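Methods, example record. To illustrate the input and output format used throughout this study, we show the complete record for NmrA-like domain-containing protein. The sequence lines were provided to the predictor; the line carrying structure tokens was produced by it.
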Amino acid sequence: MPISVLVVGASGTQGSAIIRALTTLNKSRSNNPITIHALIRSTSSPPQSLNTDSNVKLFTGDFDDISSLKAAATGCTAAFLNVTPVFTDLTAEARHARNLVEACASIASLKRFVFSPGAVLHRPADDIVWSEYIDKSPQKWMSIYTKSKQACETAVTSSSTTNFEEGWCMVRATAFLTNFLPPVSKFMYPDLETKGIISAALREDLQISYLDPEDLGPLVARQLICDKEEWETRWKGNFVPVAKENLTLGQSVEKMNAVLGRHGVKERVEVVWIGEEEARTKG
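The corresponding predicted structure is encoded as:
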């Protein structure tokens, strides 16, 4: 049976890693290649990585334009869905998740989907550090961010087998090691490349789950194309936490500096802890 997969956010960290994994699988599937519908914002200058496989078809779309999402999903058998926060509209992320689920639900051939909310929401109820953000400080940015992620997950879990014959799977990947490298670092840590400084408003003892995008890509690719038996026994309806290592930001920097030292680099990275108001000012 022909397999066609929709990958949302195809030029982003997660989407591009999944497409690389799928195109790698295609090298051994010459008789039955996977068709990949890569959804991006603009085709004027698509990433070179999307032009390496003739089975990758580019689609442009806007998460607030359901018709464009339906066009990208048409003919697909599975989908990878991923949304990101919109800092100028805190309601947008959950709305985009609902729009994506609605668009995919309208495609009869699309039987299953994998969703990545991009945040760890499986913290234990007695996690004191985490509860400070969620329960004790509901107006803090981290609390607002997490509630948005929870609304995204609700959009997924409320979909039924009436909409998707084989259901859904949730992969929970929090932070990527590539966030410390350009181009993402220029946005997340603007002083890292030039000054060796990471400014952070998190609690110093908050552990973050890190992984490499190349660990996520093959996993999701497998979930999207595996046979029905594997899907139903291992993935369907499951929340799958994905992480390489749990570290505080300080511990992450210690590891960076250890590597720099081994390579003879004298400069060191440091964390500067700032308040939330200063963080807002820095953007």
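Annotations derived from this record:
The first strand starts at residue 4 and ends at 8.
The chain has a mean pLDDT of 88.
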